[in-house]
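Local shape tokens

___
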Amino acid sequence: MDRKFVYLDNAATTWPKPDVVYEAINECVRRLGANPGRSSHRMSIQAEQLVQEARLLLAKFFNAPSPDHVIFTLNCTDSLNIALKGLLRAGKKAITGPYEHNSVMRPLRRLQSAGVSVSVARGTEGLRVDMDHFRELCLQGVDVAVVSHASNVTGCIQPIAEMAEVVHQNGGILVLDAAQTAGTTEIDMMKLGVDVLAAPGHKGLLGPMGVGILIVGPGLEIDPFREGGTGFRSEDDFQPRDLPWGLEAGTPNLPGIAGLAAGIRFIQSVGIDSISAREAELSRALCEGLRNIHGVRVFCPVEPQNGIVSFTIDSYDVALAGAILDQAFGIGVRAGLHCAPATHRAIGTFPNGTLRASFGYFNHFGHVERLLSAVRQLSASN
């Protein structure tokens, strides 16, 4: 058996990264190690130029209103916390979907305990938000709707443009959790009607861990919960309201930003449509194979839309099956609830969860066949 490890956990973080990402991080640490925007010497100025170029790159990539509205954060969870806790307060109304990650649900539940109204739209058998119920909830009042673009369990993509239209008609704003789509699915904030976008740098955007993005639409004010040094209006005891400084206290992750920018340039060189098609093709092949194996249940759209496929094997605890795939077959998948218990309740796999295989740009059909062969052997052993 070929013992070379097969990594199929790209929904958690993509690996490997393109070589240009490693090179950009190394170059940044070795040549541009100064604190960006804090000093007037050449190295600090060059570091700040790198940050500003990355903002511009991201603004164009997502068709954001302005580079100054691109905020660098720690990760997507951090971005969502900043947005939700900065927009919602007692008396406000929030609406979300049935397939949300804990990065959405936990902040909302905390806010609910502080007086924010939180409503959850129902799902459909097709793994999408029930738009009739969503409209009904919005008609009852909405200040902020927050929804995952694609489930990190099923991969199903939600009708964001339609949802945004309903939210806007009822006076609310839409916050998009793009954790599973940024870099692999075309996202045009203006066309989709997205008011606030949260995304990780280390998943589909192919950057390193430790950097995320928050893009804020025009005319929105988000109260910061993190305050401190900005290198801007340092004479004032209060955090400046101007973006991006108002939401970026402290030294930014310069090597992470450098790697993120390199990842986006790589995506642009390959073409996001090409990446999306490649990952969906691998998922379709896996789903077709899994559905032909006795005792295997698959949880994803009939036609997978991205690189995410969840499944279970009858008579196998998912944690045990995941460990066997790793130790006996050299395949890395993720087992359990995937930090999305709400999704598993909705699809009937709570509390055990599923096995999730998630493809990235560097996977290929040989990896699909390795996993299918392993699952066939596990199923036959029952």
